[in-house]
Amino acid sequence: MRVRQILTTLAALALVAGSFVSSAQAASAATYDERRGPNYSQRVILTYDGCPTSLTAFKTVLKYAKKKNDGLVLAPTGRCLAKYRERNGVDLAKLARAHGQYVINHSITHPKNFDKLSCAAVARELRAPGVVTNFGRPPYGKLGGSVRCGYKKVGMKPWNWTGYTKDAQGKSKAQVVSAGAKLAKPGATILMHMGWKAFNPDAIAKIKAGLEDRGLRVCRAYRGLDNRGAIVTSPRKLPQRLPC
After folding, report:
1. Residue by residue, what is the 3-state secondary structure of 203-229?
2. Phi, psi of 49 (to 5 degrees)
3. HSE (CB half, 13 Å, CA atoms) of 58?
4. Is residue 99 part of a domain?
5. Within a domain: 147
6. Which pLDDT tens digit goes with each residue over 52-64?
7. How many C-beta neighbours within 10 Å does residue 14 have?
């Protein structure tokens, strides 16, 4: 009789523990930080919005990032992608993914009044010729009811940033490098732009060095979900948890 009671008690405890773990897992899975995006690691993500100044500049950064095993997040606009397709016959998003980099949406036209658009209008801005994927950077970081509605409508999550270097305000490379290193905390997303002074191997190397001085490392290039082996083409739709 006593054995039966013990077994019953143990079974009840196991059920409670299982329910607790399931609840914790569900809560964890449901938690999404719109500033950190799908980065649940302690590594810092360097992100670049907008449009590169040239195809050469873009390729130089991609080759450097792949060589150094750095996983950058690139957010070109649809207009930028269309321009390079027409002018150079190159798909920037596809090229970046081939180098193990992560590419997210940044709207088609980058409207200043993004948060004033209707849900349907926001959704239209998130479609082709922009990057068609599952995460996107709202223009100017603007969020609101209609913006979130538009993202939900196209099956995309907004991803902003935790720190901005203000490079697009005309800051020097030294200022941007300093800001990029100082703003970051574990798991941070740092905002920069492809058309300004931070989008080059030297700036990236110096930002990384500044981060490493503070005990921080940047996200790694895509090597599959297990983060092992050689760098491979990153998926069009990003993993819900980046393998940084």
Report:
1. HHHHHHHHHHHCCCCECCCCCCCCCCC
2. -95, 170
3. 29
4. yes
5. yes
6. 999 999 999 999 9
7. 10
